[in-house]
Write a structure and sequence with these properties.
Plays an essential role in chain termination during de novo fatty acid synthesis. The chain is α+β, with helices and mostly antiparallel strands. The chain is built from ten helices and 17 strands.
Length: 398
């Protein structure tokens, strides 16, 4: 039977004048939360006992603020099967997670399709909501209770994304995500992104995560208590089969395209106080020439993360095309004809299918983000992107 989480409001009356007491009524001592009169200590004790919220002391303002945050976030302490607020549910052996999302206006680009950054952000959000539904989420960025006790956080070490089609503005999508084991001390997380209307898979992704000590910023082994928390959620299935991952070569100063002096903004930082990995992709794509991006769309990406990027780092983005003569002789173009507002290749309309455009791609670039140092540069992430010609169409299964 599905269980629903819900919010409850509790009201505690605070006397307006502390010199006036109503007869036969107990005086309630008010505490302040961020300068506002709020719950009384006795009320906090009541909520802690009745609803299982771990409040050990209410003598300090900090503890009261923590309590207020718990009430506002409403983080489940037990496994949930359905989340009506996020349109999510637990699926597949009670371990996978599915969330329904609508592509918003601010998630699309000039062509009215979702940007690659928006897709990555949706994958990240569904991953966090999966942990939320599990009842294991503490107050960290996807960290479990055992991880918080050991001062550990998750960091991604590798990610691969394949995109066959891009969602359009207003399209309803379903995102499935699940986790599995990755070696002794890592965790794998996979995703499938499909259209709710057609059930066609638009994109798939896989990633590898390891733990890092939040204070020392060094990688850590997985404690037994954390393994006991997350291992019941592991599924033996893969969104992308990778038998032998391809190693990405490191670029040097001879790279064809270089964008220097990139500086993180405050809005680029996540709750772990380092630059969110989605921002890295934006920096990588900024280095590719505009004329190439206008005619092509990203179809695949592999990222290998080397170190985190802080707010004070100055970043350099390098990229190099892997196909010789790609931009020296000009970008190959398909002649397009507009049909009902959508561009279709003339070769497709003539009955040649996708053969004509297929010979013009896919193309690939090698990328490197690095922190510029006085003595040496330090790698942040290596990347490889694969591209294909833009064909704007709405895919439907035949």
């Amino acid at each position: 039977m599905a269980s629903f989480s819900h919010q409850m409001a509790f009201f505690f009356r605070c006397p307006r004048n502390k010199n006036v007491q109503e007869p036969n009524k107990q005086k309630l001592h008010c505490v302040r939360i961020k300068g506002t009169k709020s719950f009384s200590p006795s009320g906090l004790d009541f909520l802690s006992q009745e609803h299982g919220i771990g409040i050990t002391s209410v003598d300090h303002t900090e503890n009261v603020q923590v309590f207020e945050q718990q009430i506002r976030q409403n983080i489940p302490t037990k496994k949930q099967l359905v989340d009506p607020y996020r349109q999510g549910m637990i699926i597949e052996e009670w371990a996978g997670y599915r969330q329904t999302v609508v592509i918003r206006s601010y998630e699309v680009g000039p062509d009215k399709t979702a940007t690659i950054e928006s897709i990555l952000s949706l994958l990240q959000e569904t991953a966090l909501n999966h942990v939320w539904m599990s009842g294991l989420l503490s107050d960290g960025f996807g960290a479990t209770h055992g991880m918080m006790r050991n001062n550990l956080i998750w960091v991604v070490s590798r990610m691969q994304l394949q995109v066959d089609h891009y969602p359009i503005w207003g399209e309803v999508m379903e995102i499935d995500t699940w986790v599995g084991a990755s070696g002794k001390n890592g965790m794998r997380r996979d995703w499938l992104l499909r259209s709710q209307a057609t059930d066609l898979v638009f994109a798939r992704a896989t990633s590898t995560w390891v733990m890092m000590n939040q204070q020392t910023r060094r990688l850590s082994k997985m404690p037994d208590e954390v393994r006991a928390e997350i291992s019941p959620w592991f599924l033996d299935k893969h969104a992308i089969q990778e038998e032998s991952p391809e190693k990405i070569e490191k670029l040097d100063n001879n790279a064809r395209y270089v964008h220097s002096d990139l500086k993180p903004k405050r809005s680029d930082l996540d709750m772990n106080h380092h630059v969110n990995n989605v921002k890295y992709v934006g920096w990588m794509l900024e280095t590719i020439p505009d004329e190439f991006l206008e005619e092509n769309q990203l179809s695949g990406m592999v990222l290998e993360y080397r170190r985190e990027c802080g707010s004070s780092d100055v970043v350099q983005s390098l990229c190099d095309p892997q196909q010789e003569g790609l931009l020296e002789t000009g970008i190959p173009k398909c002649d397009h004809i507009s049909v009902n507002g959508h561009k279709l290749s003339a070769e497709i309309l003539e009955g040649n299918g996708f053969v004509g455009c297929k010979n013009q791609g896919p193309f690939s670039y090698t990328h490197l983000l690095q922190v510029k140092g006085e003595s040496k540069n330090e790698e942040i992430v290596r990347g490889k992107t694969t591209w294909k010609k833009k064909l704007i169409s709405i895919p439907f299964p035949t």
